[in-house]
Amino acid sequence: MAETTTATTPEAPDVPEGGVPEREVVDPAAWTCPAPLRDHPTVVLGHGGGGALSAELMEHLFVPAYGNPTLAGLGDSATVTLGGARLAFSTDSYVVRPLFFPGGCIGDLAVNGTVNDLAMSGAQPAYLSCGFILEEGVELSVVGQVAQAVGAAAEAAGVTVATGDTKVVEAGHGDGVYLNTSGIGLIPDGVDIRPQRAVPGDVVIVSGPIGLHGIAVLSLREGLEFGAGELASDTAPLNGLVAAMLGVTRDVHVLRDPTRGGVAATLNEIASASGTGVVLTERDLPVPEAVANACGFLGLDPLYVANEGRLVAVVPRAEADAVLAALRAHPHGRGAAVIGECVAEHPGTVVARTAFGGTRVVDLPLGEQLPRIC
Amino acid sequence: MAETTTATTPEAPDVPEGGVPEREVVDPAAWTCPAPLRDHPTVVLGHGGGGALSAELMEHLFVPAYGNPTLAGLGDSATVTLGGARLAFSTDSYVVRPLFFPGGCIGDLAVNGTVNDLAMSGAQPAYLSCGFILEEGVELSVVGQVAQAVGAAAEAAGVTVATGDTKVVEAGHGDGVYLNTSGIGLIPDGVDIRPQRAVPGDVVIVSGPIGLHGIAVLSLREGLEFGAGELASDTAPLNGLVAAMLGVTRDVHVLRDPTRGGVAATLNEIASASGTGVVLTERDLPVPEAVANACGFLGLDPLYVANEGRLVAVVPRAEADAVLAALRAHPHGRGAAVIGECVAEHPGTVVARTAFGGTRVVDLPLGEQLPRIC
Question: Which segments show compositional bias classed as Low complexity (chains A, B) (predicted)?
Fold first, then answer.
């Protein structure tokens, strides 16, 4: 498909002898609400970035095609009922490059990612599927290392890999290993955690330092060094952390793991789904020095960098101290901090109070600053 | 990874100045039972073929890594219990080339494939996930057509696409669209359908003509023509057919859809899991003339060619007539036929009575005759 990469600079259409420009048989302009997609007649990397382009693809292409408005819900997983059981169901594909990075590899990333998507609905993750797309010629020892990482991460998270599948594509048509994990978990009675539940007055908490995964992968890929010792992915299963929070209160309004698009994308989705405003205090953001240095050097904003072992919690102010204490008592939540609040002003918009006393709007990113970090 | 394509003819290892050959840090020879894998230090296309190489990868690499012996069960889906509900859970990735072929495309193939894997345990498929790995530069109209096919196939099968994910890889690292579908369904009370349940005396039924999907895709890909009008993929959802069978008897022993590796691989897996012998009668196999012509021309055996809308049923002899009638009364089962029986002789082995009165052993294929047909 390399021949069709003229995503943003399409050539003028051929004009046949009759003088009428040739047209595609399938015309994106005929889709439900074509405007945003018409600007991008071909897929660009940003469509996989978890930002505005991803959201447009979902809204204007997938939801109309599937005829399922509930798919448009912005949760990390779907809530479905089957045989009387209320289940969370989620899927994610992983195309991270390189396959191995400080702090993890595509295998534990894929397990933790789906475990976390399930946990963000309050579910207890139970069973995972694992589908490999292997590239012909990749060493079996590499596949073995990835599979071992899948197994170890599943054991650490307390979930079972119940079913799997392996396909192989010809050399040159992949990147060694692509991985898909899907998962199901049971949502406890009385738990109702979803982005729509944020209300003015709620407190916004993040469970630890942000930006580590994205910067760790980028640094390795581009051969950059920013305080090497500190820079390892934060990939971790968050179901234990969620259980700890639910142990002190069932009244958690929203949980999300800020992966692609970072904390900025997550907060924008919460603001948009709930119709509340969100105000961040920049100086309260737990940004590790190595991440801050790397972001400064590269012109990135840590709010937009992916995390793989952090969660954002929106809780009633009355529960905030108890939730914060529960988070900090858990190994994956030691660095938890209050970073902002939900407000009635500027509904749907995220604003940051800067270190200099001003404010700035924190937009939904268009695509992603760092492609292929998960 | 194009540089590591020396799958079957690896170059001699570099010998550093010290004179000792370099060795991998991770040594496949150290795995649980390394013998079969040591012959294939890198991934070959056959590892994705659903035959002996796939089985070795499962047995010697994935099962030890995941530490989950139940994964080794040969069913198309896992049976798990969650919140008191008995569920089937399955996953499959799809890398078919080309994306569109007579009778379908990667979108409906992916929906029907997972619907069928769930249905083969007797489950009523309910919810699917759909994960896209898109290649930068692929036209959005192509993605839209695939998504429309996903939606239409889900509607036809009576399932809901509940959750999804989209990743994008750089141009040259994919084939336009790779797709993963996972699914969950509810297994009715009193239904116990699995390969281990075949017993001598059971009758083997196939629900219709075999070999159409594999030959249709191959013909298109290679530009061959064999009675073009007839050659379209059989891709179809089989949950309705399974419901029709269960409507006449709950005592169905085994159901499998003979996809990769064809009817031969499916029957070998049933024979191996149950420890019965299987005897086929070649002249009873419903092989369409166009498939027979193509197989003759290409030196293929229709028993090994993939199907995407057929099932193999193993049922007690007393139920065979009723099951056959129920199949034939359904649009997807009109061509159903008895093709063989389970016997006490040659346990674990599949034998075919040839048209000339002899017999031949029908082996588990090593890899796949036709790579990337699903």
Answer: 1-19
Residue from B129, B138, B142, B160 whose CB has the most chain A CBs within 10 Å, to mutate? B129
Mean pLDDT of chain B: 88
Residue scoring higher pLDDT (A369 or B132): B132
Average pLDDT over residues B22-47: 59
Q: Report the topology of domain B76-186.
A: 60s Ribosomal Protein L30; Chain: A; (3.30.1330)
Question: Position B70: which residue type?
Answer: T
Q: Which residue has the tokens 């119709």?
A: A275
Give the architecture-level CATH label for domain A84-186: 2-Layer Sandwich (3.30)
Task: Name the residue facing A80 among B43, B127, B136 (closest C-beta).
Answer: B127
Is residue B309 exposed (0-12), middle (13-18) or buried (19+ Cβ within 10 Å)?
A: buried
Specify the length of chain B in residues. 374
Q: Tell me: pLDDT of A106 over 90.
A: yes
Calpha distance B344→B342 (Å, rounded) = 7
Which one of B138, B164, B178 has the shortest CB-CB distance to A178? B178
Q: What is the per-residue pLDDT across A151-186, written as a single tens digit (0 to 9) for each?
A: 999 999 999 999 999 999 999 999 999 999 999 999
| CATH 2.60.40.10 for the B195-361 domain, yes or no | no
Could you identify the residue written with the tokens 């270190």? A355
Sign of the Cα torsion A291, A292, A298, A301 reads: positive
For residue A337, which amino acid is it?
A: A
Instruction: Quote the distance between the C-alpha of residue B277 and its chain's center.
Output: 21
**Chain A residues touching B180 at Cβ < 8 A:** 91, 93, 131, 180, 182
Domain range annotation of chain B: 2-11+26-66, 76-186, 195-361
Cα torsion angle, B38, B44, B47, B49, sign: negative
Contact B80, A82 (CB under 8 A): no
Q: Taking Cα atoms as reference points, which of B53, B111, B359 lies closest to residue A143? A: B53
**Helix, strand or coil for residue A360?**
strand
Q: Distance from B35 to chain A by nearest Cα, in Å?
A: 13
For residues A90 and B129, what is the distance between their CA atoms, to the nearest angstrom? 7
C-alpha–C-alpha distance, residues A52 and A268, integer Å: 10
Across the interface, whether the CB atoms of B41 and A141 are under 8 A apart is answered yes
Which tokens go with B343?
């016997």
Confidence of residue B75 (pLDDT cuts 50, 70, 90): low
- pLDDT of A24 reads 38
Which chain B residue shows the shortest CA-CA distance from A30? B141
Contacts of A127 in chain B (CB under 8 A): 78, 80, 82, 89
Band the pLDDT of B222: cuts 50, 70, 90: confident
Model pLDDT, residue A130: 96
Q: What is the pLDDT of residues B234-281, one digit of tens each?
A: 999 999 999 999 999 999 999 999 999 999 999 999 999 999 999 999
CB contact set of A20 (below 8 Å; sequence gap of 6+)? none
- The answer to whether the Cβ–Cβ distance between A95 and B167 falls below 8 Å is yes
For CA atoms B137, B143, B145, B149, the dihedral sign is positive
Q: How far is A170 from chain B (nearest CA, A)?
A: 7
Give tens-digit pLDDT for B108-151.
Answer: 999 999 999 999 999 999 999 999 999 999 999 999 999 999 99
Beta bridge partners of A39: none
Q: In Å, how far are A48, A68, A301, B104 from A54, measured between CA atoms? A: 6, 17, 19, 26
| Nearest of A105, A88, A87 to residue A96 by alpha carbon | A105
Q: Percent of chain A scored above 70 by pLDDT?
A: 86
What's the whole-number mean pLDDT along residues A321-346?
98
Nearest-10 crossing angle of helices B239-248, B106-119: 20
